[in-house]
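Hey L., structure's done. Input below.
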Amino acid sequence: MIAAKLKAANETLEKLIGVTKSDLAAIKEAKHEEIFSRAKAKEELVAVFQAQKTLLDQAIAKVAASEDLASAITPEERDLLEKLKGSLIDLHKLNKRLASLVSTIGEFYSSLLSAILPSEQNGYDGVKLSNAGLLQTRG
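Output:
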């Protein structure tokens, strides 16, 4: 029972890792539409994994309540748990890399926009365009 749940969770994680690797490749090539088109599928995979993890947690808790967990887990299940742990670590590293790239690109676009259309905070009224910069504005 636990082995089947672990296999399903590992398969979902492998899919998530694949999508994240595709996102990393796409962001490096500035193919942002590809990333946006995969976002919903990625969110669905995350939801599926969370549900699988909840079921896995319940199955492990059920086994642990009736007997010693260390002796109840088979070598196959132990290997699957190690694979799950490794996949989670890999996904975490990939997501950190993706977040770093997204943050860097966002900062680049923000600085580019402020160089083209400089603005300054105008109290509670919001943002007011200033006249210095690459593009002159008329207010």
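The CA atoms of residues 12 and 48 lie 7 Å apart. Helices lie at 2-28, 32-66, 69-72, 75-116.

-- N.
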